[in-house]
Amino acid sequence: MRKLIPASLLLAFSLAATSALAAPSGTVFTANERGNSISQITLADGSVTTIPLEISPHNVQVSTDGKRLLAVGMNIHAGHHGSGQGGGELQVFELPLAGKPSMVLPVAGHPGHVVTDRDSKLAFVTDADNNAVQVYELASRRQIATIKTGSYPHGLRLSPDGSSLYVANVKSDSVSVIDVTSLQETGRIAVGNAPVQVGFAANGKQAYVSLSAENALGLIDTASRKLTGKVKVGRNPIQMYATPDGSKVFVANQGSSKQPGGRADRYVREAIGRAHGQGVAMARHRAQQPQPPVPRQREERDCANLSYCLGA
Fold first, then answer.
1. With contact defined as beta carbons under 8 Å apart, do 148 and 185 qualify?
2. What gap in Å lies between CA 153 and CA 2, rounded to an integer?
3. Shortest CA distance to 249 belongs to which of 304, 195, 308?
4. CA pair distance 86, 100, nearest whole angstrom
């Protein structure tokens, strides 16, 4: 399995709806892991505010109710990977972002990602050292549960209906399914080599998983909890985001130090619908070569670490 390279920018969004021609609005938050800080970017005027932290934040996430920003990472005075006994922290900031966190909660081992439940009462943090998701009750500022997962859990997402968490287990090549009510793992889906992050279609019928060692996006049917296909993307895919209308999935390709990313792929809806475990064979061409649109095609474009796919 390839070593994960820390991403320099991991994003959380608090955006107003905009059209393609409208001026951007809303706020973007970034986790600056190597800079031990988080940044707030106001899209309307491009202003940036950066706040230094006592952690190296690997991930930030706006709470479901939009009132808080959560950040997880290792304390800068601890090692990057501990012995499973401490050094990680969950820091919670009130929005609008002002400065210091309103609460700091210890994480038993090495935290990767964080999300909240639909009511923003619970925070779920992946803990790679202990192969678990740690659960925190924000009102009481205490940890209330440890949920065992596969090996090296990393990215996680809440299903659109708020009932389930999907967790990418990097070293066991699987996705854990966690029931949010019982706080138990209720299933584990075999997906492929080195899954890093997951995402959902807006209707909840399909989930996506980035397979970093396969340069592919895995497609999961949530009703059957089975992998139904894979779509090739750029090198070392990490994050993904499905558009609300279900037409596209954006995939950020991290690349590597020797082979950086820098490609965007587009897949038509019909092609992803045909992917059932054997990949997708489609016509492809370089963007700089002018050609007329071809139905059911894949396009490659040279750009900055982003792939996008038409989803089902």
1. yes
2. 15
3. 308
4. 21
C-alpha–C-alpha distance, residues 72 and 12, integer Å: 12
Cα distance between residue 258 and residue 94, in whole Å: 39
The whole-angstrom distance between residue 109's C-alpha and the CA centroid of its chain comes to: 20
Q: How far is CA 243 from CA 17, 28, 157, 202, 224, in A?
A: 12, 17, 15, 7, 23
Regarding pTM above 0.85, the answer is no
Tokens for 277, please give them. 């475990």
Distance of CA 16 to the CA centre of its chain: 20
All structural domains of the chain, each given as residue ranges with its CATH number in brackets, are: 10-242 (2.130.10.10)
Contact yes or no for 89/118 (Cβ under 8 A): no
pLDDT digits (tens, 9 = 90+) for 214-236: 999 999 999 999 999 999 999 99
Extended strands (E) in 76-213:
88-94, 103-107, 111-116, 122-127, 132-137, 142-148, 153-158, 164-169, 174-179, 184-190, 195-200, 206-211
Identify the bridge partners of residue 251 per DSSP, sorted by sequence position.
240, 307
Is pLDDT above 80 for 180? yes
Tokens of 65: 């109710």
Length reported for the chain = 312
Q: Which residues have C-beta within 8 Å of that of residue 97, sequence separation ≥ 6?
A: 29, 38, 40, 49, 51, 69
